[in-house]
Write a structure and sequence with these properties.
This protein has 30 helices and 16 strands. With about 800 residues, it is an alpha+beta fold. The chain has a six-stranded mixed β-sheet. Helix 6 runs antiparallel to helix 16 and helix 8 packs antiparallel against helix 16. It is a multi-pass membrane protein. GO terms for molecular function: secondary active sulfate transmembrane transporter activity. It holds the Pfam family Sulfate_transp.
């Protein structure tokens, strides 16, 4: 909606009382919230009825809800076409992504088949294509290479030496290595599923929100770089050692360039051609997506052509090309996980579970918003959890989703997960009948397909300049996560990025934006004084706003900014005044200062704190004395001390130019115990030097928290709470106009010239001094003295603290 032009501004008039919180609650009859007991809450949650049971069943098995309303004639043809196209892509990506896990390609086909079956029953997204995802595959692969490296499967075989004699040669037992690696991968997949199911039942799907878009962007970009390096050695067909952990990318690159002279040209040419062709055709698909009814299945075309060329020219035997070799027909039998390795992969499994779920839910939400249907995050956790547990029992690896594969399913007309089931049937046909036709396929072609599909991840780098302009904290999160994941590995990189992200949140709340507000003349609008020219500060009043929660980590910063806003330290003012009064008292006792006829007999008043203990101690001992320049008896005289004028002693007392302070709590979302205690003491420090404090726009939840923490007492009542800043300002102006308050720099004091021994601090005053100034020297005594500043002399009465 466009803003109104200046000539079309409208005015409105609101007539209502000036509301403090207690008055507003009384006038509008605030109701107490009904707190249910634990038994009542359990009864509402666990109550059972036929309707509720059906709702629970539909929640656990969403397929019951949507399949019963499935429009067969409208959706089924589109789902079949989409399923066939997606199934071919799933088959090829499964073969390719198996290389990332360092297992035989046939297990990639299993991983593209089994998770679709369970997600069809339990998932809530209609469009995502469930199966292998390169980032999670690489995370599983790093664990596989750590627990089952080539060195563990070296065996000695008899060979022929240079002189024709027999010699023992070390070689890798490929069959044993393959069996152990798929055991590790499937065990980790099962554990990933367990983690996801447990998180789903505990309703902690919200935890994925801590993986912000910048963090996920930086992490997936670094993961794409890891994938690129891992597939580079396959495209070049050069031998490398297995590296994992910190600087694994660097070590792999060193191995690649060290052995680059052993590059197989047949594999290199096939890989480079595949990358160029796949990327080019995908660009055409994207550019003409509205004109082409079905995207060109370029991966399928390239794979079939490459397999045919390899078979016809016998690239393996003639040129030493590395091919798939064996894709057995049928499914591997179910097998239990290896419990011996579970304890070694707990951390990696949890991080993989979080990443897989985060990516899948992010993609699911994109298409759910596009097609206007809801996604249940916790149910998605359960769906992917059971899918991975199912995969783990049938020699498969972690399932998630991929944006490219999901885009194929949606763009070819997929309407529901019926398309997913059709794609699973296509994968099953490949496993049972067509897989052996791909045995001559070069591995470099599969690796090139993986690299070509990384383009979308690498393009996330273009987001960095935009993030830098929009929000530098998010930009730093992206860069830190990306660099950490590249250097430390994916597991530690994700953890480091998450810690850094939480650190930025803490930093931003620990050092929040604080401002001094002013009033736009003639309105009830208050804004930052630095941002507007047509703005005025309310005379004698400071309005302070903190734009964050107030808690233990930022309460000290809050007090520092508050002192900077008001321009003085209330504790220092109090101490300096007492120091001046102490010296003036000595002058009175020496007879250098005398009272005048202008004094009046009044009760004692001290710097904002009544010394009741002193009154009780001295009332019985007071004697009527005569003042030197008069014959009337007087024990107490009302006088005025103007701290803005020069005092008769050499003490620099800070000026207090305000009489009221308004704290705008409209942006404060919560307070904790430490903050409430500190605010309580801060307000008392201002009150004892004559500055009245008000809190405006405080949320009801925060007020309830303050009540629970005993924030309010006799001195600090709920009367200082106001609905808005304007209510507080109008109340202050009304009180000032009616004489309900006096200027903070002109205070009424009392004289008692018979004070001999200074009574100690009251317990409350000592508490304030000690709490707020732990590193300062606290004053421990005070006494009362009277001085009046007139044309004839200085006469003061006040609480004076002795060190």
């Amino acid at each position: 909606m466009d803003p109104l032009p200046p000539q079309n501004h409208f005015t409105y008039i609101v007539s209502r009382p000036i509301y403090s919180n207690p008055t507003f609650e009384e006038d509008n009859q605030r109701q107490a919230r009904e707190e249910r007991t634990l038994r009542e809450r359990l009864g509402l949650t666990c109550g059972c009825s036929g309707k509720r049971a059906l709702k629970v069943v539909k929640g656990v098995f969403p397929v019951i809800d949507w399949l019963s309303r499935y429009p067969i004639r409208e959706w089924l043809p589109s789902d079949v076409i989409s399923g066939v196209s997606t199934g071919l892509v799933c088959s090829l990506q499964g073969l390719a992504y198996a290389l990332l896990v360092s297992v035989s390609p046939v297990y990639g086909l299993y991983s593209a088949f089994f998770p679709i079956l369970t997600y069809f029953l339990l998932g809530t997204s209609r469009h995502i294509s469930v199966g292998p995802f390169p980032v999670t595959c690489l995370m599983v692969g790093s664990v596989v290479l750590t627990l089952a490296p080539d060195d563990h499967f070296l065996i000695s075989v008899n060979g022929t030496g240079l002189n024709g004699t027999g010699a023992e040669v070390n070689t890798v037992d490929v069959e044993a290595m393959e069996a152990q690696r798929i055991m590790v991968a499937s065990s980790m997949t099962l554990l990933v599923g367990v983690f996801q199911v447990v998180m789903g039942f505990l309703q902690v799907g919200f935890l994925v929100r801590y993986l912000s878009d910048p963090l996920v962007g930086g992490f997936t970009t670094a993961a794409a770089f890891h994938v690129l390096i891992s597939q580079l050695r396959i495209v070049l067909s050069v031998p490398t050692d297995n590296h994992n952990g910190c600087f694994s990318v660097v070590y792999t690159l060193i191995d690649v360039f060290t052995n680059i002279s052993q590059t197989n040209l047949a594999d290199l040419v096939a890989g480079l051609l595949t990358i160029v062709i796949v990327v080019a055709v995908k660009e055409l698909n994207a550019k003409f997506q509205h004109r082409i009814p079905v995207p060109i299945p370029i991966e399928l075309i390239v794979t079939v052509v490459a397999a045919g060329i390899s078979y016809a020219t016998e690239l393996e035997s003639h040129y030493g090309a590395s091919i798939v070799q064996s894709i057995p027909r049928g499914f591997a039998p179910a097998q239990p996980p290896n419990t011996d390795v579970l304890w070694n992969i707990l951390g990696s499994s949890f991080s993989t579970a979080v990443v897989g779920y985060a990516v899948a839910v992010s993609v699911a939400k994109v298409y759910a918003a596009k097609h206007d249907y809801p996604i249940d995050g916790n149910q998605e956790l359960i769906a992917f959890g059971f899918s991975n547990m199912f995969c783990g029992c049938f020699s498969s690896f972690v399932a998630s989703t991929a944006l490219s594969r999901t885009a194929v399913q949606e763009s070819t007309g997929g309407k529901s997960q019926v398309a997913g089931m059709v794609s699973a049937m296509v994968v099953m046909i490949v496993i049972l009948a067509l897989g052996h036709l791909l045995e001559p396929l070069q591995k470099s072609v599969l690796a090139a397909i993986v690299i070509a599909n990384l383009k979308g991840m690498f393009m996330q780098v273009t987001e960095v300049p935009t993030l830098w302009r929009q929000n530098r904290a998010d930009c730093f999160i992206w860069l830190a996560t990306c660099l950490a994941s590249m250097v430390l590995g994916l597991d530690m990189g994700l953890l480091s990025g998450l810690v850094f992200e939480m650190g930025t949140v803490v930093f931003r709340t620990q050092f929040p934006a604080c401002s001094t507000l002013g009033n736009i003349p003639g309105t009830n609008i208050y804004r930052n004084m630095k941002d507007y020219q047509n703005i005025a500060e309310v005379p004698g009043v400071k309005i302070f706003k903190c734009n964050s929660p107030i808690y233990f980590a930022n309460i000290d910063y809050f007090k520092e900014r508050l002192r900077a806003t008001v321009g003085f330290d209330s504790v220092r003012v109090f101490k300096k005044r007492n120091k001046a009064l102490k010296k003036i008292h000595k002058l009175i006792k020496k007879g250098k200062l005398k009272a005048t006829k202008t004094g009046e007999v009044l009760s004692e008043v001290s710097l904002g704190v009544d010394n009741k203990g002193f009154e009780g101690e001295r009332n019985g001992e007071r004697e009527t004395r005569k003042v030197d320049d008069g014959n009337w008896p007087v024990s107490e005289v009302e006088v005025h001390v103007d701290w803005a004028l020069e005092l008769p002693v050499r003490v620099s007392v800070p000026k207090v130019p305000i009489h009221s302070l308004v704290l705008d709590f409209s942006a404060v979302s919560f307070v904790d115990v430490v903050a409430v205690k500190s605010l309580h003491l801060v307000i008392k420090e201002f009150l004892r030097i004559g500055v009245h404090v008000y809190i405006a726009a405080c949320d009801d939840e925060i007020i309830r928290k303050m009540e629970a923490l005993a924030f309010f007492d006799v001195e600090i009542t709920q009367g200082l709470l106001f609905l808005s800043v304007h209510d507080a300002i109008l109340f202050i102006k009304l009180e000032t106009a009616n004489g309900g308050r006096h200027d903070a720099i002109v205070e009424k004091l009392s004289l008692m010239q018979d004070c001999e021994e200074p009574p100690p601090f009251t317990e409350e005053e000592d508490l304030i001094e000690t709490y707020d100034n732990q590193h300062r020297v606290s004053l421990s005594y005070h006494f009362v003295v009277l001085v009046s500043i007139t044309t004839s002399g200085f006469h003061i009465h006040d609480v004076v603290h002795l060190s």
